[in-house]
Amino acid sequence: MANNSKAKKTTGRERSEFLWGWVFIIPTMVGLIVLNIIPIFQTIYQSFFKTGDFGKGNIFVGTANYVKVFGDSEVWQSLINTFKYAIVEVPFSIAIALVLAVLLNRKMRGRSTYRTIIFLPMVAAPAAVAMVWRWLFNSDFGLINNVFGTSTKWISDPNIAVYSIAVIGIWSVIGYNMVLFISGLQEIPHDYYEAAEIDGATGIRSFFHITIPLLSPTIFFVCITRIIAGLQVFDLMYMVMDESNPALKKTQSLVYLFYKYAFTNKNKGYGATIVVLLLVVIMLITVFQMIAQKKWVFYN
Description:
The chain is mainly α. The protein contains twelve helices and two strands, in the order H-E-E-H-H-H-H-H-H-H-H-H-H-H. Helices cover 74% and strands 2% of the residues.
């Protein structure tokens, strides 16, 4: 009888945990479905239509929007611009954040203050960030040109404008990446470093043979999220670049182009097609990363 009573009590506890688990999960699932999953299918559906005259009604055009996208030089230029931004922003933001995380993970005076200062750009309003950097990059009275005695047109030269925007992106996200790396570093047992030190390993050698391998799951997560975010860049370009900027065509991203077609030109169908193209690109890159991570990510 005692054994049966104990079994019933265990079953009741498991049932309670199961129910409470669903209570906490359901709001997230509902939000994910309503705010993410359904809009994805609506966007794909919208891509087969053209917005009617005066922005009213939808006209079914089949795959005409996709045919137009593949022959649109502005779309491919925007895709190239997006890749240029991501290729600069992602690796540099990860590398710098990793070095800072290692330095600020050690015991040192003012460590919390340094961490806070580096993380501040992440919580700053994007509009304020854009205003400050527009002043810094100003070719006539900007701080950077005045300090170095140059007259470089940082955000109006088509050859370098996209890289200048990438610099802002790097500065903005370093703190976020650093916090993730610090949390990963704190999970690495200190015994490994003590053993390496006894064997005569230098700090740099320990970094590449202990820190990097054991931190690889966190590095992989940051890579995945940063590449996705980098390919979706919009706010920095929208707030830093003016429509009259001569470098806009060589700087605008795919999301910026989507905004222009969907909300400025009122052609939501074509804008949705551009987003679907970006979705496919992101999915292909993510699948490649998931396959490649088996060779360099080490899970304990």
